[in-house]
Amino acid sequence: MDATVPDPVSLAADIKAWGRALGFGAIGITDIDLEQAEGHLHEWLTRGFHGEMDYMARHGRKRSRPAELLPGTLRVISVRMDYLPPAGAEAEAVLNVPTAGYVSRYALGRDYHKVMRRRLQQLADRIEAKIGPFGYRAFTDSAPVLEKPLAQKAGLGWIGKHTNLLAREAGSWFFLGELYTDLPLPVDSPIASHCGNCRACIDICPTQAIVAPYQLDARRCISYLTIELKGAIPEPLRPLIGNRIYGCDDCQLVCPWNRFARPSNEPDFAPRHGLDAPRLIDLFAWREDEFLARTEGSAIRRIGHERWLRNIAVALGNAPHSAGIIEALRARADHPSALVREHVAWALARHT
């Protein structure tokens, strides 16, 4: 570092203050030693728990070795941004209405990738204004990064039995982002686990995707099935999905630590287009142009209209029998997509 640059301890304190001013709920700093996490990742991949998420293995060791992803990286600045909507329908209430569609709370507002990336860039700009040009790169679930192990090492929380990061003061309703940097900053201390003997998340999982504490078989996870999986949803799992049409929050909703979660102050994360408690029949009627218009700027758009209809068809198949549901399904029975037709046929069979 240049002689005119403030000492690393002072700069780290400034970075945390700037981060909080930019809306981050917590900021921590860690080194790049992820040897233990690398072993866990290798075991997870070897067991095939990643399913069709080939990108988890595609980049080799870059995911667990930050300096191979960005040469020169010495430290990782890890940040947290709370996203729990301050308004809108209660999650549990929506799950208890089988004719409503449940969308994971993280996807109700604007795409978090854009929001987080912009804030991380603003943080980098503040650092550069203070010390001059430096090496860095911002990440928000956008590259091979082990964000949860990094956040744990940076003192932002611990990885719970459901494999999400947990913080004592914020639960798990937050996004993570990182700045890889060549700045030799002091590192923060990790936080020990506070899950104890609790297994609420394991017991509540509708598809029993948490096969053991700290072990998630993504192939059974509803978030994977409704978002990552491109083909047909396995028939034995369809009845277990209920009315969840994009993601699943059950393991978070039941977690005792989420009693301390705080609603987000970020306007971009407020529910849009009534997706906090929509009627399945209404969503199933969206044409592709309507889907694209109403999911503009949303993480939901990434699955496309075809998988959107696939997911809703499953939820309609799980809903109570009604003439309206039968009519809605029959209207899509001859859809151009074989994927949609197959799931509609399954849903109709459930009702007839």
From TrEMBL:
Cob(II)alamin binds at R63, D141, L165, L176, S223, C248, D249. The keyword Repeat does not apply. It comes from the Bacteria. Pathway: tRNA modification; tRNA-queuosine biosynthesis. The active site is at D141 (proton donor). It is found in: Cytoplasm. [4Fe-4S] cluster 1 binds at C195, C198, C201, C255. This is Epoxyqueuosine reductase. It catalyses: epoxyqueuosine(34) in tRNA + AH2 = queuosine(34) in tRNA + A + H2O.
